[in-house]
TrEMBL record, chain A:
Involved in both the production of very long-chain fatty acids for sphingolipid synthesis and the degradation of the sphingosine moiety in sphingolipids through the sphingosine 1-phosphate metabolic pathway. Catalyzes the last of the four reactions of the long-chain fatty acids elongation cycle. This endoplasmic reticulum-bound enzymatic process, allows the addition of 2 carbons to the chain of long- and very long-chain fatty acids/VLCFAs per cycle. This is Very-long-chain enoyl-CoA reductase. It comes from Bos taurus (Bovine). SUPFAM superfamilies: Ubiquitin-like. Its main location: endoplasmic reticulum. One of its GO terms (biological process) is sphingolipid metabolic process. The keyword Lyase does not apply. Pathway: Lipid metabolism; sphingolipid metabolism; Lipid metabolism; fatty acid biosynthesis; Sphingolipid metabolism. Belongs to the steroid 5-alpha reductase family. Keywords: Acetylation, Endoplasmic reticulum, Fatty acid biosynthesis, Fatty acid metabolism, Lipid biosynthesis, Lipid metabolism, Membrane, NADP, Oxidoreductase, Phosphoprotein, Sphingolipid metabolism, Transmembrane, Transmembrane helix.
Length: 308, 254
């Protein structure tokens, strides 16, 4: 019979890396990656990018060999994506850090503030409230990572964990330092301001969680299908009528709430940076929705209703 | 760093042959260049900048001859220095709108570091304006920029004299360390005055629950030179080898 053969070349040097002799026509790229790993064990499947053209797009794991535009000998080009780490690991590390770090400042662990303040407690209610909110936020994120989110990619490059952790941990330490400082100044408009901010925070946390659940239900376990998200019976999801990524909208809202609650400039700066990044992601997601779905609702904006 | 970054990272302001920049291989590929109107604008921009830095150079020489010493020459070229160095902010815009193929991030770092030194250090801390270290970096920047902007001008017009290319990729060997020394010494000289005046600093308690110590910030800036400067310097050395030997080979076949 005419069983396809696969040769794998290095995308940059065109060096022949591997020749696979009798490959099943129904074989998927994932299976080919596994075969390739056997001859080159240092390149586990997650770090392989195989493509038909050295400069082209990566083939997907689900693609079937027979359905690709190749002859009896398929030539695939290989690029090493570098050491990979699972998304779950990255998320857990990024989020556990701020949770723990904030508490170090809250409990005024030694060497942060002056010695006379070690293990003392703030006399401002808002400081205790802020600790609860901040901790709740990151515990929620950890639980969502473990039980709610369905990731479409298994891994990301290893260097991302250093970059991401520096960002999250760094900002957490910076804001926690001021909020829990002995010289902290409570909000100008007192309890009114704190109550309003807390309401915003809670509503946005609920909203964000609702969106995460709605997105989860959109995609069956183990699959990588993509569908247009629509509002459900949960009123928090009605924001889908106006934006593509309401989870980001609610996330920004939560941090604005927290900034108003603590009246702390570093929190406001963190919100601004986060908003910038999430806007970039939302615009990208919005663009890919538009490209993939002809019937995508035209009223929707990426992240801010009617505006952005 | 401002001096170093300006030479190493900037590959832009138009032009074709033999440009070197951070990470860009020198290529003789015909790239789809900017349109005629854009090219005209960029040529004008680069000519004006070349002229501006020449004005600063001439100003320095005249002031030296008039005073008879090289101390406190800053005051004679303060205004054109501020104007033309700040004008370089336009280069960030050029990258952002795509008329120049350099990285926005890299260009931003290089221009902002120069602008920082001019305004946030030299202008803000009047006491350092009479320091000799200021002259050190001003001379380094002036020579570098005259060569750099004329390099871009000629590249845009597709008539790059080898001398300019040689100068750009050789003089940095001395100008870099000179500029960096001038910059570091100036920042160092500014420190006690910053501390004394509490310049640009805010302390707790305040209603924004924020603090900033400009003195500590300047020290961090100085420390950042340690990892950054060698990288930029050796990148330029590497580029020099690649670009100047490449040209030599071409000349052989003429």
């Amino acid at each position: 019979g005419r069983q396809p053969r696969v040769e794998i070349l290095d995308a940059k040097t065109r060096e022949k890396l591997c020749f696979l002799d009798k490959v099943e026509p129904q074989a998927t790229i994932a299976e080919i990656k596994n075969l390739f790993t056997k001859t080159h064990p240092q390149w586990y499947p997650a770090r392989q990018s195989l493509r038909l053209d050295p400069k082209g797009k990566s083939l997907k794991d689900e693609d079937v060999l027979q359905k690709l535009p190749v002859g009896t000998t398929a030539t695939l080009y290989f690029r090493d994506l570098g050491a990979q780490i699972s998304w779950v690991t990255v998320f857990l590390t990024e989020y556990a850090g701020p949770l723990f770090i904030y508490l170090l400042f809250y409990f005024r662990v030694p060497f942060i503030y002056g010695r006379k303040y070690d293990f003392t407690s703030s006399r401002h209610t808002v400081v205790h409230l802020a600790c609860i909110c901040h901790s709740f936020h990151y515990i929620k994120r950890l639980l969502e990572t473990l039980f709610v989110h369905r990731f479409s990619h298994g891994t990301m490059p290893l260097r991302n964990i250093f970059k991401n952790c520096t960002y999250y941990w760094g900002f957490a330490a910076w804001m926690a330092y001021y909020i829990n400082h002995p010289l902290y100044t409570p909000p100008t408009y007192g309890a009114q301001q704190v109550k309003l901010a807390l309401a915003i925070f809670v509503i946005c946390q609920l909203g964000n969680f609702s969106i995460h659940m709605a997105l989860r239900d959109l995609r069956p376990a183990g699959s990588k299908t993509r569908k247009i998200p629509y509002p459900t019976r949960n009123p928090f999801t009605w924001l889908f009528l106006l934006v593509s990524c309401p989870n980001y909208t609610y996330e920004v809202g939560s941090w604005i709430g927290f900034a108003i609650m603590t009246q702390c400039l570093p929190v406001a700066l963190f919100s601004l940076v986060g908003f910038t990044q999430m806007t970039i992601w939302a615009k990208g997601k919005h663009r890919s929705y538009l490209k993939e779905f002809r019937d995508y609702p035209p009223l929707r904006m990426p992240i801010i209703p009617f505006l952005l | 760093m401002a001096a170093a970054a300006a030479i190493a990272a900037s590959k832009g302001n138009g032009g074709g042959g033999g440009r070197a920049g951070a990470g860009e291989a020198s290529s003789s590929r015909r790239k789809k260049g900017p349109g005629p109107l854009t090219t005209a604008y960029l040529v004008i921009y680069n000519v004006v900048m070349t002229a501006g830095w020449l004005v600063i150079a001439v100003g320095l020489v005249r002031a030296y001859l008039a005073k008879g010493s090289y101390h406190s020459l800053y005051y004679s070229i303060e205004k054109p220095l501020k104007f033309f160095q700040t004008g370089a902010l336009l280069e960030i815009l050029h990258c952002a709108i795509g008329i120049v193929p350099s990285s926005v991030v890299l260009t931003s770092i290089q221009v902002m570091s120069r602008v920082f030194l001019i305004w946030a250090v030299t202008h803000s801390v009047k006491e350092v304006q009479s320091e000799d270290s200021v002259l050190l970096f001003v001379i380094a920047w002036t020579i570098t920029e005259i060569i750099r902007y004329s390099f871009y001008t000629f590249s845009l017009l597709n008539h790059l004299p080898y001398l300019i290319k040689w100068a750009r990729y050789t003089l940095f060997i001395v100008l870099y360390p000179m500029g960096v020394s001038g910059e570091l010494l100036t920042i160092y000289a500014a420190l006690p005055f910053v501390r004394q005046a509490g310049l640009y600093s805010i302390s707790l308690p305040n209603k924004y629950n924020f603090s900033f110590d400009y003195y500590a910030f300047l020290i961090l800036i100085m420390i950042s030179y340690i990892p950054l400067f060698p990288q930029l310097y050796f990148h330029m050395i590497h580029q020099r080898r690649k670009i100047l030997s490449h040209t030599e080979e071409h000349k052989k076949f003429e």
